[in-house]
Design a protein that fits this description.
The protein is mostly beta strands. The protein contains 6 helices and 19 strands. The chain has a single domain, classed as Beta Barrel (Porin), CATH 2.40.160. Helix content is 11%, strand content 56%. The radius of gyration is 24 Å and the shape is globular.
């Protein structure tokens, strides 16, 4: 096998379309492992729990000037792997080691991003503007095995299980929260966010199936792939949340992100179809155009719709003192671009030895991806703040990372 195959896989990791994960642009939250439900105030409350806006102590008058976060990850290969195998001659032991790193469900690559600008918080209301994108690509391990080892006699390669989805959109949201119960320092708040969504682009493989088998007479196989694409649409999304402030020190909450959502794709909607079939294909006759029979076409189709993935989040936090902490549980309901049906747990702390220089660190695991260790700091000048964060999808060795996440956010508090 040529070493370029491993390089190609790494390039797929690095050039995947950027994707969406709500809260990705809050550098304070990223530094704390993503755990922020019980701490998010003002402009950041809608990203984690709009119910926080219903709590008096979580309301702010502020303006996020800009926020951006980017994360790239995969489930198989580390930076060490890239440095070791790229450009090298791969022995049988190397090939076996590389394939051993790919889990049984296959090679998964995704990248995520979120950008926000001029988000305004006015007490019980927050007006937010975000740009988002999402992608997820899964490649069947059988296919990768053939790339590395070739086909053995009577070995069948199944194309089922390969998956790809990508979406990009912009949204404008209005969030509102109110208190429904208050007794001393205890308070319960409810909140909701209603988002107008402008779809920018969408692609999804709606069907892929097929088999290729090696026989003594040659290769035999057939397969079909159907994908839908669009370059414009309109829709909505609704998030709801509830927050319980136990006292001045602790708070907990639950939120359902995209509880209701729909994007109607109506611009340049197309279906792309590809089918192939071949019989007794060998090295000697593969140049014969009559051996491989294929058909592909693209056609305009009527508009279709898609939904953003619904996600439940539950969190608890210590909210006061020089040392604060938060723990969140994130649960998606089905696999989708930017979401997993497997739960993910995040935990983080923030320490203010010097009040204007908060230091943060966190850890997260689960969710169908590798564990991540994160850290960062802020500059808090009262009126102005700047937060910076980085997360490494491994523990302490950068060379063992399977992905990286960086975020920066800045704004004003009045």
């Amino acid at each position: 096998m040529k070493p370029k195959i491993f390089t190609l896989i790494i390039i797929l990791i690095l050039t995947a379309t950027l994707a969406n994960a709500a809260g990705l642009s809050s550098a304070r939250a990223v530094a704390m492992g993503g755990a922020h439900m019980g701490l998010a105030k003002g402009v950041y409350a809608p990203l984690y729990n709009p119910g926080n806006i219903g709590i008096n102590d979580f309301r702010q008058t502020g303006l996020e000037l800009a926020g951006a976060g980017i994360e790239i990850r995969n489930n198989s290969f580390t930076l060490d792997d890239y440095n070791q195998y790229t450009g090298a001659f791969l022995s049988d032991e190397d090939k076996s080691a590389i394939l051993g790193k790919i889990p049984s469900e296959g090679f998964r690559v995704s990248a995520i991003a979120e950008a926000g600008a001029v988000t305004l918080s006015l007490g019980s209301f927050v007006f937010s503007f975000n740009g988002c994108a999402a992608t997820e690509t899964d490649i069947n391990k059988d296919v990768l095995s053939v790339l590395f080892d070739g086909n053995e006699l009577n070995q069948s390669v199944n194309l089922n299980g390969n998956y790809s989805e990508a979406i990009a959109y912009a949204s404008a949201g209005i969030s509102y929260g109110r208190s429904i119960y208050k007794s001393g320092t205890r308070q319960i708040g409810l909140g909701a966010t209603v988002k107008y969504i402008r779809g920018i682009a969408y692609e999804k493989i709606t069907e892929i199936k097929g088999d290729v088998i090696t026989l003594e007479t040659g290769f035999e196989g057939e397969g079909t792939m159907i994908a839908q694409t669009a370059t414009g649409g309109n829709g909505f999304g609704i998030d709801i949340g509830a927050t319980l402030k136990f006292n001045d020190n602790y708070a907990a909450g639950i939120t359902f992100e995209n509880l209701l959502s729909n994007i109607g794709w109506s611009n340049d909607t197309q279906e792309h179809y590809y089918n192939f079939h071949f019989d007794t294909l060998t090295l000697d006759n593969m140049d014969d155009d009559s051996i491989v029979v294929s058909d592909d076409y693209s056609e305009d189709i009527v508009g279709f719709s898609s939904k953003l993935p619904a996600i439940m989040k539950i969190g608890v936090a210590n909210t006061s003192g020089k040392l604060i902490w938060a723990v969140d549980w994130i649960q998606g309901f089905k696999p989708a671009a930017g979401s997993s049906s497997k739960p993910r747990i995040s935990a983080g702390v923030e320490y203010r030895l010097i009040n204007l220089l908060p230091l943060r660190c966190g850890y997260s695991l689960g969710g169908g991806r590798s564990s991540a260790l994160s850290g960062g700091f802020g500059i808090d000048l009262g009126l102005y703040y700047l937060d910076i964060a980085v997360a490494n999808h491994s523990l302490f060795r950068m060379s063992s990372t399977k992905g990286m996440h960086v975020a920066v956010s800045t704004g004003l508090l009045f």
